[in-house]
Specification:
It is a single chain. With 300 residues, this protein is of the alpha+beta class. It folds into two domains: 114 residues, no CATH class; 140 residues, no CATH class. It is 28% helix and 19% strand. Strands 5, 6, 7, 8, 9 and 12 form a six-stranded mixed beta sheet that branches. The chain has a four-stranded antiparallel beta sheet with strand order 2-3-1-4.
Length: 300
């Protein structure tokens, strides 16, 4: 009975394997020589807003042996002892499920049991291994029926148009000039549930297409690919446009114009209805369409 219960837990964990936590926010602001040690709350708030939609630029040290490849996640372990639970789980996967090639990874906020390293989700080997793993039977059950292909780490998610990739903006415009950009669109699942490899490919293409169309209209547009969603931003702004340290609340003419042209942050082409904090939801004024938001330009 105990063994059967453990495999049931593995199967349940695999369902959420793609959504390994909300990504932690990496450094989006270049260090300035004269910057004070303590940043004002407004700048910290800007960081937090960006964290909701932009993926980390780099994994934590020692993590992600398959960071540059697609891999199959069999099970995910959360909580304070996720690494210990993962080690025990890996032993059972190798010994009882007949998958000696499985390995352990510490990713963003969880430990996962993964299998394989593939160049793309369409790799024939990836598809064959995924089908085989999903069909594995243990004690009469299929513990990995929900196993899923997962994408590489964000730094390896370069798109097909590098000149429009936001990660390259600092190289193009300079570290000091490219501090901020205005996010105007998201392509992904609205409920942040796990996306399939096919959906991820669709989101990436949609974001790149949108950036291209905006560029053709004369807008300085970029795309940014996170593991399961993609964002579109417009404009490159430096301290002359937005300086929360010395001129809090003051925006330059270029940023103001960009907000006027793109007042909303759209999800798959539609507005996002959100509730204002501190206002009763029965009040009509408690709801608004999510505005476009200023986010930091990632390091190259």
């Amino acid at each position: 009975m105990a063994r059967h219960f453990v495999w049931h837990v593995y199967a349940a964990a695999a369902v959420a394997a793609i959504g390994v936590g909300r990504p932690a926010f990496a450094q989006f602001y270049g260090k300035k020589k004269d910057a004070p040690a303590e940043k004002p709350r407004e700048l910290e708030k800007l960081r937090e807003e960006g964290a909701r939609v932009l993926a980390p630029l780099e994994g934590e040290a020692g993590a992600a042996a398959s960071s540059s490849h697609w891999s199959i996640v069999l099970a995910t372990f959360w909580g304070e002892k996720h690494e210990e639970a993962g080690r025990l789980g890996l032993h059972k996967v190798r010994a009882e499920a007949g998958l000696p090639g499985a390995y352990l990874e510490t990713r963003d906020k969880a430990t996962v049991i993964a299998y394989g390293r593939y160049e793309s989700p369409s790799d024939p080997a990836a598809q064959a291994d995924l089908a085989r793993i999903r069909a594995v039977r243990v004690d009469g059950g299929a513990p990995f029926a929900a196993a899923l292909l997962t994408p590489p780490a964000p730094e390896h998610l370069a798109g097909s148009l590098p000149e429009l990739d936001l990660r390259n903006a600092k190289k193009q415009f300079g570290e000091d000039k490219a501090l901020y950009t205005l996010q105007v669109a998201i392509y992904g699942r609205g409920d942040r549930s796990a996306a399939t490899a096919e959906e991820v490919a669709e989101f990436r293409k949609a974001a790149e297409d949108a950036a291209v169309l905006l560029r053709r209209d004369g807008e300085l547009a970029f795309y940014y690919h996170a593991p399961e969603r993609s964002m579109v931003t417009v404009g490159i702004f430096g301290q002359e446009e937005y300086d929360p340290l010395n001129r809090p609340g003051i925006e330059g003419f270029g940023l103001i114009e960009a907000r006027e042209r793109h007042p909303l942050n759209l999800l798959n082409g539609k507005g996002i209805r959100e509730k204002l904090p501190g206002v009763d939801e029965s009040d009509p004024r408690a709801w608004r369409m999510q505005p476009s938001m200023l986010v930091g330009v990632p390091e190259s």
